[in-house]
């Protein structure tokens, strides 16, 4: 088997935006086509039910169907659903749903209803790991207020609870500490605007936002970066960075969906409490996306 088959969380996995109809219902047919289009354009798989997929405002029925739709479209080995929930029991149920749908890995935030201590974090990941599907941790201390520091990640990995980590702290120095403490733990780029820095530091994958709009150029950037073609990578990174940095902003869902609309994909509306971009924000995203289009990056 290839490395990606052994470790299906490696490569470019797109945290998929979720297309909504005008009445804000989920357009599952369009979502299936979007997943297939991403793979056709070089992406290795998708991550449904991440924050970019607005999982927090989906009903349980919608959330389950999103996973099933992605699996039907591109196969379970290419689908790594987010299974985050307020409690370990609910997160475990979502991991079971993913497993039963045919997924071969899941992505899990730490407990995010309160500021959990280390023992609670370990118990949380243990409970979900017992489902039998490999778990990739998602470190997002900005939103969860729980920081999976390298020392804690090493403990989680040593116990067999996690196989990789989506690193969204923005602190690229952590890559080297993680590699020292847990050399077999796969580091995944978690924020689009530190892609080059983490790729150079040895990342094995990218849980990505902007490939929703610009998959081919994003995949080219990733492979150039991880393969050490820094001349190509730097040029693409500089051209794409005005867009990539939106992935780390509060309005990232709206920004990426707008870019999708501009390049001819359906981004569309967002569910409340998210609101549309402010006019100056929309103008900034529009200008950067149109510049990327003019440069032949779509």
From TrEMBL:
Record's keyword annotation contains Coiled coil: no
Lyase: present as a keyword of the record?
yes
Q: Pfam families under this entry?
A: DHDPS
Record key words, sorted: Lyase
Tell me which CDD domains the record gives.
DHDPS-like
UniProt record similarity statement:
Belongs to the DapA family.
According to UniProt, the name of this protein is: Dihydrodipicolinate synthase family protein
Naturally occurring in which organism (per UniProt): Streptomyces mirabilis
Q: What is the lineage of its organism?
A: Bacteria, Bacillati, Actinomycetota, Actinomycetes, Kitasatosporales
């Amino acid at each position: 088997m290839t490395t990606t088959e052994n470790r299906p969380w490696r490569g470019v996995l797109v945290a998929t935006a979720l297309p909504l109809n005008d009445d804000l219902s989920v357009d599952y047919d369009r979502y299936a086509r979007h997943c297939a289009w991403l793979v056709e354009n070089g992406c290795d798989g998708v991550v449904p039910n991440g924050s970019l997929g607005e999982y927090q405002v989906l009903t349980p029925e919608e959330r389950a169907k999103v996973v099933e739709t992605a699996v039907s479209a591109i196969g379970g080995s290419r689908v790594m659903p987010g299974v985050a929930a307020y409690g370990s029991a609910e997160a475990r149920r979502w991991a079971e749903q993913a497993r039963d749908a045919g997924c071969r890995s899941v992505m899990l935030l730490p407990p995010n209803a309160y500021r959990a201590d280390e023992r609670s974090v370990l118990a949380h990941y243990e409970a979900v790991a017992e489902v039998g599907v490999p778990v990739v941790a998602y470190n997002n201390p900005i939103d969860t207020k729980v920081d999976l520091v390298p020392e804690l990640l090493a403990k989680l990995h040593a116990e067999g609870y996690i196989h990789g980590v989506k690193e969204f702290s923005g602190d690229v120095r952590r890559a080297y500490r993680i590699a020292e403490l847990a050399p077999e733990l796969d580091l995944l780029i978690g924020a689009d605007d530190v892609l080059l820095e983490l790729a150079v530091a040895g990342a094995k994958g990218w849980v990505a936002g902007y490939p929703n709009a610009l998959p081919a150029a994003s995949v080219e950037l990733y492979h150039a970066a991880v393969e050490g073609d820094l001349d190509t990578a730097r040029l693409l990174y500089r051209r794409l960075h005005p867009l990539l940095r939106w992935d780390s902003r509060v309005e990232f869902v709206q920004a990426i969906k707008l870019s999708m609309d501009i390049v001819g994909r359906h981004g569309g509306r967002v569910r409340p409490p998210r609101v549309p971009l402010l006019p100056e924000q929309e103008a900034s995203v529009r200008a950067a996306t149109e510049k990327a289009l003019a440069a032949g990056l779509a």
